[in-house]
Amino acid sequence: MNFLNFFKRIEIKDEKNNDSSPVVQNNNNNSKDNNNDDVDTELNLYLESRKLSSSTQNDLDVLMLKINDKIIKNDVSQAYQLLKQFVYIVYEPLCRPPVDRGTTYNQLSERYHIPSINKLEELYQTARMKSEEIIRINNEQSLVEISMIISILQQIKYLLLNRTRISSENSVVTVLSQLEDDGLTLFTQYLRKQVLESLGPMIQDLIKLNQQLSAKDIKTNCKSLENCCQTLKKLLNQVAHNITHAMELSNDHWKWNDLLLQKYKVQLKQWNSPDLLMPIHNQSAFYIDQIYKILQERIQDKRMINDLSDACFQFETIIQNHQYSPQWLDSIKHLFSLDEMLNYLAISSEISNKYIRFIQDQSEHTKPIPELNNMKGKIEEIMTIYVELEVNYFQLSFSLAIYRDNLRKIVYTLKNPQITTQDLLQLTSLASGTGNNITSPKLTAGHTITSPNSIGQPPGSRINFKISSMLDDIFFVFRKVIQRSIQSLNTSTACSIINQSCSTFELNFLPFIESLLQFTFQGDFDEKRDIFLIILNDLKTTQLYLQKILEQLTEQSIQKFKNENDQKMISICLGGDNFTSISKKIDQLLHTNLEKLLKILSTVINQYLWPIRRISFELKDTDFEIYEINDPFVLDFISNMVQLLEPYKKNLLNQNLDELIHLIANHIAIILEEHIMQSFFNQLGGIHLSKDLRKIIEFLCTLTTEQNVRHKFTKLTQISHILTFDQVNDVMDYWDLKEYNWKLNPLQIKQVLGRRTDFPKNLIHNLKLIETPVNNNNNNNNVQQQQQQSKR
């Protein structure tokens, strides 16, 4: 009766929920109604079984005859319902060991509740014969129910034959686990037949289409791969649908089995997910292999692979020699159609890996499923060829971007002054039209790109763009190939493409940039200055683009891959040492060439600084007033620097300009310090020097955008401050201040004080500056900085 009360509580709870909860969706209400109907049906069946369980064995015989009659008359649904009622009656006594034969009551009870083995066998054979007829009719509902009837009868019969082995609930499970379920076998045969009927025509059509596409060129291969990709998607979707449908049927028809578990703490052995999905997958594996076979045949084109390798090698030679070859470029134009083939291969891999993940999830197994190994192996074979093709395609597109770069055209005219505008247009017209699939991406790196129109300009004319056009094309292809490899959901493929693309930057791009930098330092630098600045901008933009794109790709890979180990592997490749090494090499190239630029500029800057050497800083009041009205140095110096740095301010990116200004500021500070330590001052001269120094610092700060240059003049500012003191002992007011970060040691302070002609030498000599730990640490840092400056 506890079991009956349990269902009554469910009914009461459902009524309360229906009264109080608002209607949200009709579908939800329908599903609730269906669930309630199922519960009511099972409850009624159970109540009927309770009535029969108190009767004689003849009632069981009558019930079995009814079930047999319903099966013979093709009323399988009613037979299935009666059989569940039969199970409710006999299941409890079957799940306990045989009773003591010495008790009359127990003997009678067992006789009334235990069915006859002969009649069970007769009913089982009737169901088996009817199943053959239903298979021919191909009625799914009837076939599922007859399969359930066979499975249930077989388990009841098996429990009856093995009652002596039953001692507890666990022993029931053990006994049933040894049974080969004929009902399940019948149902899986039907599922396999469905696979044959639904997938067979798909593969036949695909094979026919593939035979019609007999040519082996890239265009034909693309069409064949498109057909394979579409068929694979339809096929795997159909298989997944069949699996889901089969599992839903099984769950619906075995739902009543939970009632046995609630009542008797043990239930019949029902069909598990692996029992249903693996037969369907195994049946479809043959058709899946047919698609993979066609894919492999189409991409294992040795002629295409050789053409790609030769084209990449020839491209590198042309670029290294700064040449153009329009006829040759036109001959390899068809190779860029490989992009479409790679798309279909990546999609095929993605579909396959999603299907494998679906099977793994539905199987409820944490360990890999052996039956999927063959499919995984086929995908790996295809993706191994994909990697080779993708790497060649990336290198080819990479080289094309460099080949048709606008800056490269200008360099070509400088190297070949005899080339006319018309000649250059003819040489580059085919390059501009090749590879139409390479278009400029929408990337942001803190600046805008002005489209150049510099073909045929004389070398001395002004270039109206800050970075060369190749970067947009390069990074468009870079992003595309890595995104495509991530889309494939194949971890090893994605990691391989990421590493190979990194090598292309290191082996192709950086050497090309270095060759351009070397070229700009040959001959007249003023003529090639703008080219040099664009190359520096290209380096910095490359670094910024890499950082931004790698961050975006890392986020995409985390969203795409669900497995944490896969996510870690992709993240390590994208943020690993390879790209870090490229960034460091770019930093090194930038710093080295900016120092070369400083070396060129320093000659002019030294000339602008030279007038300060003719100025006397031992000023009288009248001299100080004259200097205030008509400064003899700083105004002219700033004016000259404005003119000198104007082209750099206009053409350099902000990041590169900042670094250049920092180098210039450091150079100016060193030159001024050397001059100051050779000059003599009074207080007015020190005040005037301090004002000039502030104006220079403020001017240089206006040229920077991110980090100002004040720290470059910290030591010089302290020197000028000391030169403005009223007395020698004023230095003691600042010596022990923690917030005053001294860049001078005691000896240097005395040397600066010694430049004041109005300070007594004995007071300077007797000045006691005791070094504190803070000052000592600062002075050590100053020594290291001075050593680095002397090396530079």
Automatic annotation (TrEMBL):
InterPro entries, A to Z: COG4, COG4_C, COG4_M, Dilute_dom
Region (Disordered): 17-39
Domain Dilute residues, every copy: 659-759
Compositional bias annotation for Low complexity: 19-33
Protein name (Swiss-Prot/TrEMBL): Dilute domain-containing protein
Organism field: Tieghemostelium lacteum (Slime mold)
